[in-house]
Amino acid sequence: MITEAMLNGAIQALTANGVANADIRVVRCPGSYEIPLTAQWLLEDDTIDGVIALGVVIRGGTPHFEYVCDAVNKGILELNLRYSKPVAFGVLTTDNVQQALDRTGDKGNKGGEAALALLEMLNIKAKINKKESK
Is 30 annotated as catalytic? Predict the structure, then answer.
């Protein structure tokens, strides 16, 4: 439910900014911990310009939360640098379900925000590449 709302927000932001539905590829993985590897597989495809990583990790009573959040954060950072393609970070890390719901509702959708960040990074890259080709 939460990740679906984030996905819908991301797709709405992309299409509102001129990205065709045919150019949007949705790939699901079993959990947030698996996001970096799934993103890597996408980045290895030359037809993929960037990835929006969406997920949610909700704190529980064990240190599992910290391990997963740290692994996903480091994994996505490493992919950004290794592939020189943007991977937008849309992974919620919250203390409870209500906090996650608040970040996907009427007051703002973190999936949409991640999509806008991806588009901005692609614009920055295009401007840099344009200057380099002169």
Answer: no
